[in-house]
C-alpha cells in the first residue's frame, strides 16, 4: 500500500521589475472555471487547482525553486485551491507587492518520500 | 449384424452434372424437365398426388362450420388406427394450404421423371433391412391422413353458408312481395313514403351485396383445422335474426293479413338495416380487431436456428399460425439440408470412438462391459478436443474457396453481359443477327456456365438451380435490362423459399402442434409448433409491453453552449 504524504514547500519569490511590470517568471493553468481534464500535471483529473505550467529559465521563480507541475495552494496567505483563473492571476500580480510567498505541493516530493520509506 | 443398404447411383441425373459436358453439348441439351435431388423427388411425387385432391371453396367464411363435427369423428378413428400420443395433451391438427392448380406442368413432368429415372440408384440410408426409416413412417402417416379427406364437410359448410346468405338476402324482398301477391286488393295504397322506402331498400340491398362480396367472397388462403369461432358466431347471429323476423312476419302479418302496407315495408327496411349492422359487426370482428399489434411472435426454425419476429394483433392460434406461414415463405432463407452438417473431416473423428459392440455376452459380464465402454467413451471425449481446431480451419478454407469462386463468377457474368446489347429502333440490322431474349440468353450462357456451376456446387445450392431455371432467369434479366449484379443477386445469397420452384414449397405438409386448443386466442407465453417433415418452426408469444410516455417540453431557446477553457497565463 502507498502512504500518501503531502509535503508542502514554501517558496518565496522576489518579483523582477521589467519596465512597468513586475514579473515572476512562470505561467499558471487551472482554476474552477477551467476544464480540469486537460491538466497534464494533476493526478486527480477533477482537481481544479492552480498549477505551474511553465517556468522561464533564469527567472525569479526558478531562482526561488519553483518547478513545473507544482500546485499552488496559497499566495501570501490567500487560498488558491478554489479560485477562478483570473482571480489567481490577480492575486499573483498585485502591483504593490514585491515579494510573494507561495505554499506549493509537489508530486515528486510525495514519490520520493514513498520510495525512501519503502526501501 | 447391421448391413446398410447400398445401391449404385447414376449421377448423371444430378443437376448441372458432376461431369462437365463440353459447352456445345450443354447448350444443345437444354433439358425440358428440371432435374432434382433424390429426396426432393420423392417429396414432389407425394405433392403431385395431393394436388389432385385439393379443392377450393368460394366462401372463405363458411369453410369451417361443419368441419368440427366431422373432424372429431375422423380424428377419433385416426387415433385408433395410428398410435399417436395424445396423452400428453398435445392436439395435433393439419393445416392444408391450397393455391396450386389441380394439374400443372410439374405433375406431368414428374411422371416422366419417374420413367426416365435410372434403375440403379445409390441411397446410403444407414438403416437395416428390418427397420423402416423415419421418412417412410411419416410418408405412411401422411397417406393415411390424406385418404380420410374432409372435402364433404368443407362443401357442406360452404353450402350451408351460401344458403343462409341467400335466405338473408331474399327475405326482405319476400316480405315486400308476399302481401302484393296474396291480398293485393285489400291493401291500402301508400304513395310517396313507400316509394322512398322502396328505393332505400334497393340501395341498401345493393350495398349489402357489395359489402358481402368484398368481405366474404375470397379464395381461402388456408384450411383451418378447427371452426373459425367468429365466423360461426356471425352465421348463428344471421340465422337467428332471419328466423325471428320470419316468425314475427308470419304471425303478425301473414296470419292477420295486415292491410297497412307501409308498415310491412318499414318492417322489411328494418330487417335490411339489421343485416347491414351484422355486416358491420363482421367487418369489425374479422378484419379490424386483429390489426392493432398486441403480441410479438418469435418464429425459430429448428433445423438451423433462423429466427424472425412478427407483430400481430388479437388472433386465434390457428390464424396466427397461418400468418406466420405466410411470412415464413418470404422472410426465411430457404431450408438447405446440405448446409446443416459439420464437414465430414470434423465429424468422422468424433464418431470414431463410440462403436462399442457387445456381442452375445452373458449377464454376469455386463459390469465389465459397461466399465470398459465408459473408459472408451472417456478416452474418445478426450480425443475429441482437437476437432474444434479442424472445424475452424475447415471453415476458413471453405470461406476462402467460396470467395474465390464468387469472384470468378462475378467476372464471368460481367464479361458475358458485355457481349449483347439492346437493339435500338433506329439501327437497321440484318434480320439474321437479331435475337429474341431467349436466344440472347443462350448465346451468353455458355461463357458463364462453368463458373456458375462451380460456384453453386461450392455453396451447395445446386439442387435449387437447374440449368433451365438459370437460363430463364437470364432471359428475364436481359428482357428487363438488368445489370449483371442484378442477375447475380439471386445466386449469391440464399433467397426466401417462395423464390424457388413450387416443388420446394411443400406448402401442404405443415402440421400445427399446440398444447392449447387452437381456437384459443393468443396470450403471453403461448408456444406452438408448426411441423414439417424435415424441420419445425417453434413460435413463442410475448405481449408487447405497455408504454408509459411522459412529456418533456424543451424550449428551443434553451440550447446554449460554452467553450471548455484551458487557458494558461504567464505572470
From TrEMBL, chain A:
Classification via InterPro entries: PDZ, PDZ_sf, Synaptic_Scaffolding_LAP-MAGUK
Pfam families reported in the protein's UniProt record: PDZ (PF00595)
Keywords from the UniProt entry: Acetylation, Cell membrane, Cytoplasm, Membrane, Nucleus, Phosphoprotein, Wnt signaling pathway
Protein topology in the membrane: Peripheral membrane protein
Compartments, record wording: Cell membrane; Cytoplasm; Nucleus
Source organism (scientific name): Vireo altiloquus (Black-whiskered vireo)
SMART domains: PDZ
Name of the protein in question: Tax1-binding protein 3
Domain PDZ: 10-107
Molecular function (Gene Ontology), one example: protein kinase binding
Record bears the keyword Acetylation: yes
Keyword Cytoplasm: yes
Gene Ontology annotations for the cellular component aspect, listed alphabetically: adherens junction; basolateral plasma membrane; cytoplasm; nucleus; postsynaptic density; postsynaptic membrane
Superkingdom of the source species: Eukaryota
One of the protein's GO biological processes: regulation of signal transduction
Main location: membrane
UniProtKB/TrEMBL annotation, chain B:
Composition bias, Low complexity: 118-130
Annotated Gene Ontology cellular component terms: plasma membrane
Homology family: Belongs to the Vang family.
Membrane-spanning segments: 156-177, 197-216, 228-247, 267-288
Membrane topology: Multi-pass membrane protein
Composition-biased stretches (Basic and acidic residues): 37-49, 106-116
Protein's name in the database: VNG2A protein
Compositional bias segments (type: Basic residues): 64-82
Location in the cell: Cell membrane
Chain segments carrying region Disordered: 27-130
Record keywords, A-Z: Cell membrane, Membrane, Transmembrane, Transmembrane helix
Amino acid at each position: 500500500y502507498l502512504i500518501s504524504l503531502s509535503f508542502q514547500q514554501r517558496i518565496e519569490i522576489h518579483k523582477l521589475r521589467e519596465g512597468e511590470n513586475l514579473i515572476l517568471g512562470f505561467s499558471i493553468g487551472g482554476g474552477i472555471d477551467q476544464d480540469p481534464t486537460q491538466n497534464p500535471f494533476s493526478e486527480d483529473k477533477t482537481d481544479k487547482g492552480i498549477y505551474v505550467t511553465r517556468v522561464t529559465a533564469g527567472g525569479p521563480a526558478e531562482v526561488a525553486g519553483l518547478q513545473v507541475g507544482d500546485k499552488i495552494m496559497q499566495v501570501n496567505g490567500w487560498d488558491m485551491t478554489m479560485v477562478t483563473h483570473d482571480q489567481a492571476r490577480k492575486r499573483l500580480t498585485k502591483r504593490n507587492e514585491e515579494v510573494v510567498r507561495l505554499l506549493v505541493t509537489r508530486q515528486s516530493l510525495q514519490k520520493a518520500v514513498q520510495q525512501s520509506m519503502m526501501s | 449384424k447391421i448391413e446398410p443398404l447400398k445401391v449404385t447411383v447414376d449421377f448423371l441425373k444430378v443437376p448441372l452434372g458432376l461431369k462437365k459436358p463440353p459447352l456445345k453439348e450443354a447448350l444443345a441439351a437444354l433439358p425440358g424437365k428440371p432435374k432434382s435431388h433424390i429426396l426432393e423427388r420423392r417429396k414432389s411425387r407425394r405433392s403431385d398426388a395431393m394436388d389432385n385432391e385439393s379443392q377450393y371453396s368460394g366462401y372463405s367464411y363458411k369453410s369451417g362450420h361443419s368441419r368440427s363435427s366431422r373432424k372429431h369423428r375422423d380424428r377419433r378413428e385416426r387415433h385408433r388406427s395410428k398410435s399417436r400420443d395424445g396423452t400428453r395433451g398435445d392436439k395435433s391438427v393439419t393445416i392444408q394450404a391450397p393455391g396450386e392448380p389441380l394439374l400443372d406442368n410439374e405433375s406431368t413432368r414428374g411422371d416422366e421423371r419417374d420413367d426416365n429415372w435410372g434403375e440403379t440408384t445409390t441411397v446410403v440410408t444407414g438403416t437395416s433391412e428390418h427397420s423402416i426409416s423415419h421418412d417412410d413412417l411419416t410418408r405412411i402417416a401422411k397417406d393415411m391422413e390424406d385418404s380420410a379427406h374432409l372435402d364433404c364437410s368443407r362443401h357442406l359448410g360452404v353450402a350451408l353458408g351460401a344458403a343462409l346468405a341467400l335466405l338473408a338476402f331474399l327475405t326482405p324482398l319476400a316480405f315486400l312481395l308476399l302481401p302484393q301477391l296474396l291480398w293485393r286488393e285489400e291493401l291500402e295504397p301508400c304513395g310517396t313514403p313507400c316509394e322512398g322506402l322502396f328505393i332505400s331498400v334497393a340501395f341498401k340491398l345493393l350495398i349489402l351485396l357489395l359489402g358481402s362480396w368484398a368481405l366474404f367472397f375470397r379464395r381461402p388462403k388456408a384450411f383451418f383445422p378447427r371452426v373459425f369461432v367468429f365466423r360461426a358466431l356471425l352465421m348463428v347471429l344471421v340465422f337467428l335474426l332471419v328466423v325471428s323476423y320470419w316468425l314475427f312476419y308470419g304471425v303478425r302479418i301473414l296470419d292477420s293479413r295486415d292491410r297497412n302496407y307501409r308498415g310491412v315495408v318499414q318492417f322489411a327496411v328494418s330487417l335490411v338495416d339489421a343485416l347491414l349492422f351484422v355486416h358491420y359487426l363482421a367487418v369489425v370482428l374479422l378484419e379490424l380487431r386483429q390489426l392493432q399489434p398486441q403480441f410479438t411472435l418469435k418464429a425459430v426454425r429448428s433445423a438451423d436456428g433462423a429466427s424472425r419476429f412478427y407483430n400481430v394483433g388479437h388472433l386465434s392460434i390457428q390464424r396466427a399460425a397461418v400468418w406466420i406461414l405466410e411470412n415464413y415463405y418470404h422472410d426465411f432463407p430457404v431450408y438447405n439440408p446440405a448446409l446443416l452438417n459439420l464437414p465430414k473431416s470434423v465429424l468422422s473423428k468424433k464418431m470414431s470412438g463410440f462403436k462399442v459392440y457387445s456381442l452375445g455376452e452373458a449377464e454376469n459380464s455386463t459390469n465389465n462391459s459397461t466399465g470398459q465402454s465408459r473408459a472408451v467413451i472417456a478416452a474418445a471425449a478426450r480425443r475429441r478436443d482437437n476437432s474444434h481446431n479442424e472445424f475452424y480451419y475447415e471453415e476458413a478454407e471453405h470461406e476462402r474457396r467460396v470467395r474465390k469462386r464468387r469472384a470468378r463468377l462475378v467476372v464471368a457474368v460481367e464479361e458475358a453481359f458485355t457481349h449483347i446489347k439492346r437493339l435500338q429502333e433506329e439501327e437497321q440490322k440484318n434480320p439474321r443477327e437479331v435475337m429474341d431474349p431467349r436466344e440472347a440468353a443462350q448465346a451468353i450462357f455458355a461463357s458463364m456456365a462453368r463458373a456458375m456451376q462451380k460456384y453453386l456446387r461450392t455453396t451447395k445450392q445446386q439442387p435449387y438451380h437447374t440449368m433451365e431455371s438459370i437460363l430463364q432467369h437470364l432471359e428475364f434479366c436481359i428482357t428487363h435490362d438488368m445489370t449483371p449484379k442484378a442477375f447475380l443477386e439471386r445466386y449469391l445469397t440464399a433467397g426466401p423459399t417462395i423464390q424457388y420452384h413450387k416443388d420446394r414449397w411443400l406448402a401442404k405438409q405443415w402440421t400445427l402442434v399446440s398444447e392449447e386448443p387452437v381456437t384459443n386466442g393468443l396470450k403471453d407465453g403461448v408456444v406452438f409448433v408448426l411441423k414439417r417433415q424435415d424441420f419445425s418452426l417453434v413460435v413463442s408469444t410475448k405481449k408487447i409491453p405497455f408504454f408509459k410516455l411522459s412529456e418533456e417540453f424543451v424550449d428551443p431557446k434553451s440550447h446554449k453552449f460554452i467553450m471548455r477553457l484551458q487557458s494558461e497565463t504567464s505572470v
